[in-house]
């Protein structure tokens, strides 16, 4: 475990080489390649370990089943996104922050104490803001500003809860149960940062306006920091975790409802990020594998926006997409829909098999997901065209069909689910219209946060 910490500190130091323009691209690719191998070795060999730095009150780090899935997700998504990003003309500051993002997220996904989680999540927020605002585009800058303001407000709630817990227990370690009121504040802060519908509406604006590779990092990795924290804390907030499950179900259903009515490709994906986070949160035992799956197929879909002739769905349906490009889009769409023998199907089945009262509602969300992506499966096709980011798509395609995920070989029920979703899409598509964006207005966020805190605190106090 100590070696893994040293390894990430070396990555942090190497990131400074990106300030040299001639070394920046090779540095990024080397970091990504090495980290990709390390993460796969940790995952395949089921490595486990933990360490406490600087004594009993120091930083606690742990690698276990939960961490392994998030570390692999970080390695795959970061490498695929970086291979796209280095092809574009960016300044050295952008490349430095991109390099810095990798080891910071690695350390976030092995954090095992309350205060260290806060520090690394705030670092991810800051780096994400800087990455999103370095392109000098006005829309991206203001979307990034909304993101950092609302995420900082959310983490202040988390820090308040952590402080209250420390006064009661005298420790930031995860060995003691968190009492009801601090638990409610911690949950409220992490939910607002994790990409839960109603309380993470900054996500849609930022993800849809950022560059494709940044959108992939945001959806595939950045929001997973708070998701990881919720899952890591679940054993010591078990009495209050039921509110997380409820918000997960609501987010899953509401997200697909908004996505089905959306007409912009990247906004559809952003709405689905809000929905897919719900799948992760409803199942603490299987959510980690779904986080890995979501990182793979959602980053695939965001990166693929570079290949589309238009982001407007109505225009896209009237234009022809090269058949070789369509195959990649179809694979990513079928993976998120749960096609058998894909990582999406395996992860979805693991999550659904752990549910009780939530299962019928999550099946509704599954059907809505298929309906949202059915439109991409029936795009008119044209002759072959050159693909811009082929290495990234091949990497992500491999993990969509990854051989080391435990497939249970169910075929009938997933196919019936997909056929039901496609049929539902053709029935309702004439009635679909974009919904109001009132909730995305930053002026309404304070009111939503107050409601979130009240709900979480009331449920936690009565747990």
TrEMBL record:
Pfam families documented for this protein: Proton_antipo_M
Main location (coarse class): membrane
Membrane-topology descriptor: Multi-pass membrane protein
UniProt entry tagged with the keyword Transmembrane helix: yes
Transmembrane segments: 6-23, 28-48, 68-86, 93-111, 117-135, 147-167, 179-202, 239-260, 326-348, 360-378, 390-405, 411-432, 444-461
Keywords: Cell membrane, Membrane, Transmembrane, Transmembrane helix, Ubiquinone
InterPro entries per record: CPA3_Na-H_Antiporter_D, ND/Mrp_TM
Any single Gene Ontology cellular-component annotation: plasma membrane
Location within or outside the cell: Cell membrane; Membrane
Transmembrane helix is among the record's keywords: yes
NADH:quinone oxidoreductase/Mrp antiporter transmembrane domain residues: 111-371
PANTHER family linked to this entry: NA(+)_H(+) ANTIPORTER SUBUNIT D1, NADH DEHYDROGENASE
NCBIfam families: PRK07234.1-3 (NF005563)
UniProt family annotation: Belongs to the CPA3 antiporters (TC 2.A.63) subunit D family.
Name of this chain's protein: NADH/Ubiquinone/plastoquinone (Complex I)
Species of origin: Pseudothermotoga lettingae (strain ATCC BAA-301 / DSM 14385 / NBRC 107922 / TMO) (Thermotoga lettingae)
High-level lineage: Bacteria, Thermotogati, Thermotogota, Thermotogae, Thermotogales
């Amino acid at each position: 475990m100590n070696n893994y910490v040293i390894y990430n500190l070396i990555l942090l130091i190497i990131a400074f080489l990106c300030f040299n323009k001639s070394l920046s691209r090779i540095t990024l690719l080397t970091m990504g390649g090495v980290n990709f191998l390390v993460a796969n070795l940790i995952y395949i060999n089921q490595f486990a370990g933990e360490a406490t730095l600087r004594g009993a009150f120091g930083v606690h780090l742990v690698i276990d089943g939960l961490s392994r899935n998030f570390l692999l997700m970080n390695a795959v998504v970061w490498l695929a996104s970086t291979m796209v990003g280095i092809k574009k003309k960016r300044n050295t500051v952008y490349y430095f922050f991109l390099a810095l993002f990798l080891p910071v997220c690695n350390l976030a996904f092995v954090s095992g104490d309350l205060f260290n989680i806060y520090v690394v999540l705030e670092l991810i927020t800051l780096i994400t803001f800087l990455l999103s605002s370095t392109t000098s585009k006005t829309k991206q800058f203001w979307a990034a500003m909304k993101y950092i303001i609302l995420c900082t407000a959310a983490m202040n709630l988390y820090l308040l809860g952590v402080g209250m817990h420390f006064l009661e227990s005298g420790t930031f370690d995860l060995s003691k149960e968190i009492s009801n009121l601090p638990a409610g504040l911690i949950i409220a802060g992490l939910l607002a940062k994790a990409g839960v519908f109603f309380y993470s509406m900054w996500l849609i604006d930022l993800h849809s306006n950022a560059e494709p590779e940044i959108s992939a990092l945001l959806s595939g990795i950045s929001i997973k920091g708070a998701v990881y924290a919720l899952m890591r804390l679940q054993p010591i907030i078990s009495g209050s975790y039921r509110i997380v499950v409820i918000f997960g179900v609501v987010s899953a259903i509401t997200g697909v409802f908004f996505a089905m009515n959306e007409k912009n490709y990247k906004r559809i994906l952003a709405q689905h990020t809000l929905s897919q986070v719900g799948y992760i949160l409803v199942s603490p035992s299987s959510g980690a594998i779904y986080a890995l799956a979501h990182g793979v197929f959602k980053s695939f879909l965001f990166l693929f926006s570079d290949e589309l002739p238009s982001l407007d769905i109505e225009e896209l349906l009237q234009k022809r997409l090269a058949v070789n490009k369509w195959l990649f889009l179809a694979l990513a769409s079928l993976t998120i829909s749960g096609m058998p023998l894909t990582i999406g199907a395996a992860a979805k089945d693991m999550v659904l098999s752990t549910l009780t009262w939530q299962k019928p509602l999550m099946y509704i969300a599954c059907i809505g997901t298929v309906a949202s992506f059915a439109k991409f499966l029936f795009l008119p096709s044209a002759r072959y065209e050159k693909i811009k980011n082929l290495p990234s798509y091949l990497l992500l395609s491999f993990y969509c069909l990854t051989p080391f995920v435990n497939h249970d070989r169910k075929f009938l029920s997933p196919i019936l689910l997909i056929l039901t979703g496609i049929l539902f899409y053709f029935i309702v598509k004439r009635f679909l219209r974009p919904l109001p964006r009132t909730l995305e207005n930053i002026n309404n966020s304070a009111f939503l946060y107050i409601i979130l805190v009240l709900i979480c605190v009331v449920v936690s106090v009565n747990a």
